[in-house]
Amino acid sequence: MTGTSPRRGLRHRLADPDFPWWLAALAVAALGIALVLALDSSWRQIATILAAGLGTTLAVTVLAFAGAAALGLFVALAGRARNRVIRNGARLYVELVRGVPLLVLLFWIAFVGAPAFVTSWNAVTAPLSKAGLLAPLTVRDVSLMARAVIALVIAYSAFLAEIFRAGIEAVPEGQIEAAKALGLGSFARLRLIVLPQAVRTVLPPLANDLVSMVKDSSLVSVLGVADITQMGKVYASGSFRFFETYSVLAYLYLLVTVSVSLAARALERRLARGRRGREAQPLRSVPG
């Protein structure tokens, strides 16, 4: 009887209308491609070369998304400020940044913003440079990877600001009023009441933007940053094996993006279970 239980459980799981057949199909395809990469030396060589740039892609994505989330939250809070100048300044920032294509913004930060920053920095620190306490900064001192990360931070912060704004506004006003009645200050209300609920609300669109940033990080290759896309371009142009190179490149991107999506869904389900558990806790504490 115990031997048939696992089979019965698997049968019921497969019969579930919500069973993720799409994920099963992707897993089978991924395993098949991984088998080809493991057995074919030429394909394995391409995968090894591209994997060298995978760390750069992940580093750019993590740094840029963390910076964009922090800046986007700041802009979202500034957009709800009582001061009219701060509120309109935040709105202006969002509209300006969202209206510029990411590639144009990337070029502007890399070839206009970085030189302007170096010029301003040298002008401010000129007395220290004349005294021999600080060396003048050159444009080459600002790495291309840093410029790319800054461009992604600025570009995505505007979109994340709108996501955070929607999540904050979705918190019931009654809970905020109750927190005020309990004597909680504005920062305590934000930290204990507003942000925990807003994060649960905005988690799906945040995960969607993280997946988008993984893909948009490929744009840093136009600056010569040695990410996975740049490594693929260099190898394909030298070997003329475009089909194999870009097939492996798409495969590696899919592995990363699907993994991020699955992790975000797992976190979303965990937060939902935790919320249901907290909501049911007072009912269990009532004397029977």
Describe the protein.
The chain is mostly helical. The protein folds into two domains: 31-53 and 226-266; 58-222, MetI-like fold (Orthogonal Bundle), CATH 1.10.3720. The protein is 80% helix and 0% strand. It has twelve helices and no strands. Helix 4 packs across helix 8 and helix 8 crosses helix 10. The protein starts with a helix and ends with a helix. Residues 54-264 form the ABC transmembrane type-1 domain.
Provide the fold topology.
Blueprint: H1 5-15, H2 21-39, H3 41-51, H4 54-78, H5 84-98, H6 102-124, H7 126-130, H8 144-169, H9 173-181, H10 186-216, H11 228-239, H12 242-285
Helix pairs in contact: 2-3, 3-11, 3-12, 4-8, 5-8, 6-8, 8-10, 9-10, 10-12, 11-12
Could you write a compact summary of the structure shown?
This protein has 288 residues and is mostly helical. It has helices spanning 5-15, 21-39, 41-51, 54-78, 84-98, 102-124, 126-130, 144-169, 173-181, 186-216, 228-239, 242-285. The radius of gyration is 25 Å and the shape is flat.
The total number of structural domains is: 2
What structural class is derived from the secondary structure elements?
mainly alpha
Number of strands: 0
**Gross morphology:** flat
pLDDT < 50 runs, ≥5 residues: 283-288
Strand content: under 5%
End-to-end separation in angstroms reads 38 Å
Biggest sheet overview:
none
The SSE string, one letter per element, is HHHHHHHHHHHH
CATH class assignment of the largest domain: Mainly Alpha
Using the 3D structure, state the CATH architecture of the largest domain.
Answer: Orthogonal Bundle
Question: What is the overall number of helices?
Answer: 12
**Helix percent band:** over 70%
Mean pLDDT level: 85
Radius of gyration, in angstroms, nearest whole number: 25 Å
- The CATH topology of the largest domain corresponds to MetI-like fold
Annotated CATH homologous superfamily of the largest domain: MetI-like
